[in-house]
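S., here's the first fold you wanted:
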Amino acid sequence: MQNKWYRLDTAALIFPATRRHDWANAFRVSACLTEDVDANLLQQAVDELRPRFPSYYVALRKGVFWYYLEESTERVLVQKDYAYPLTFMSSRELRHNCMRILVYKNRIAAEFFHSLTDGRGGSVYLCNLVARYLERKEGITIPHEGLIRDLNETPPPEELEDSFLKNAAEVAAGRKEEHSYHLHGTREKRGFRTLTTGIVETRSLLDTAHRYGVTVTALIAAVMTESVIAIQDAEVVRRRQRPVKITIPVDLRRLYGSRTLRNFSLVLNIGVDPRYGSYTLEELCRSIYHQLSAAATPQVMAGMIAANVQPQQLVSLRLAPVVIKNLVMDAVYRQSGESGGCLNISNITNLPLPEVMFRYVSRMEFIIGPQRSYPNNCSVMSFGGKTYINMIRNIRESELERRFFSRLVEIGIAVDIECNRR
């Protein structure tokens, strides 16, 4: 019988084309349990999720005209988490599976090649994996509510759809924007990534954001912008500086009511131009908050979606061999894919889990790797009253983390620091 296959969704098309020998766009979601993980029981849970979540158990294939995802003939095997997060996903690995399941003591981690899904979709999978594992391990029944699905039901078509195609506007938004300042430093050897985690009380973070009259995402982005401005100030005189813009992904499911488990997010580059003058933190908070509020609307996002959807529909591009498409998409990505921002801040909020799971899960985290030209990235997840701010980098210099977390402390947010580097 022929294996099932899936077209890459609109956002996923760029990732195979822009991969390099030392960079694959991937991310990790993880959960720490109150007891060490039984790898054998976890493997059973991984196998049992396959019929309900088939779009995760796939391999990357290269066709004549497009890349596509095909149902993998191989099991996704639970592996020991032995190295730093998000080690390189090679072409050979992706030809077998585009997802990893990793275990270290009490931690279960799932890493995804970004062509599969985005952070929200990956979180749905991990939560269901943990739920099924707990049912086997603890002999409990976890209700199908919040993010937890019924494993006996057939996957509904809306979970597998490309929601970009049905929500594009008739007119595409323009792509042109001024380039942002980029951080830089001394590259680590052998692809090592330093992960620094700041753990804060969610209540404290919320109270501080409300004190400034903004959301948590806007507050974190403002503090990050202030930190990057200070780094640029130390390098370049003000009149020769570039804008400082933070790339913020927007989960489009909440705007359009989509249930898709595939990619359905777009990024906004939000920031300020230091050449116009100095900014207080209050001013940065207000500016970033209002920029986000104005841009993250169904109408604006629909125009941005159209800018990605419409080129796919050009006959000349559709008939071009995948080798030519790769060259075109890689050139476009180098020109504009990451030029508009200096790093990502991706915040996954509101993971609605059944109450029974909170007795067994002590911590959940989200980690995105450095981008192709961003040496630093930041991802945020809140769980159980704590917010985990993960800052990852592939350079030796730690100046950004030092400035960012020190500033959080200055504005009244206590931070506990963990790092995978001594």
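And the second, which I think is the more interesting of the pair:
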Amino acid sequence: MVVALKGVGSEALVTRSGSWPTLRRLMERGAATLEGTTGSVSSDPAGPLTTLGTGGLPSEHGITGTLVRNEERELAAAWGPRSPINVIATLAEDLDEDLGQDPLIGLVGSAPVDRGLIGGDWYVEHDKDEVTMLPEGSSPARLVESASEMLRRIPLGEDDVPDLLAVALEGRPDGVDASLSRLLEAVSQQVGPDALVVVAGTGGYVDAGTGIVDAGHLLRRLERRVPERPQVVEAVSPGELFLDQEVLAAQQLSADVVLEELLDLGDDRLVFADAFPSLAVTFGRFC
């Protein structure tokens, strides 16, 4: 079983050291560290979740955020209908392929990006995984209830073929930890003591009240500052602004113009430590 703690990072665990007794017991009984890194922007769980599923970084598996561009250069929601698939296979996909589709693969989550934990169609189109997707924002308790129901409904761990259940929980460390305890109890009852459990955080979100900037307000200010006020921003996701390339071409603007205005939005305080076009990241990988 793989349990992803969305929005939970080492800093939150260190500062609330007494609020996660279940996770602490797991750490004492097995291999554990608070020094790991997700290798991507922690405010957007899409990349880290697929990293947990594939074992590769976003630069390798291709799911770089909640929004990605497909081969037609169209924006698509990661793991949505028009999204490009992961470049490398997940553990769940490899298990299915190597063992003749005999493993049982299950997922319980509350957002399309949670699919990154198991993938799906790398080897077989419309892979028959057991997927329960609850409404976004569902509580950890409700997600664990669904996972427990799945454990009762399908025979996970009842033969010698390895199965995999992935659960994505989101919330504060104390609430997530209490639900994790109930999930471990359900696994113990249905599967027994020999189940391997892996728990990993996607990295901490920024807490409200610590100087965060509303994205909508930021975009309105940016649009006002760019010459002739074209609607240059096509979409926004955590850590990224997607520029409308057709608008830039029609207005004869370069991305550098937008970057300059973006970095100057802070007035009397710094909003961005840095900003750069995605092309710079691409070149950085090879130069």
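Why I say that: DSSP finds eleven helices and nine strands in the chain. Residues 173-190 form the longest helix (18 residues).

Talk tomorrow,
H.
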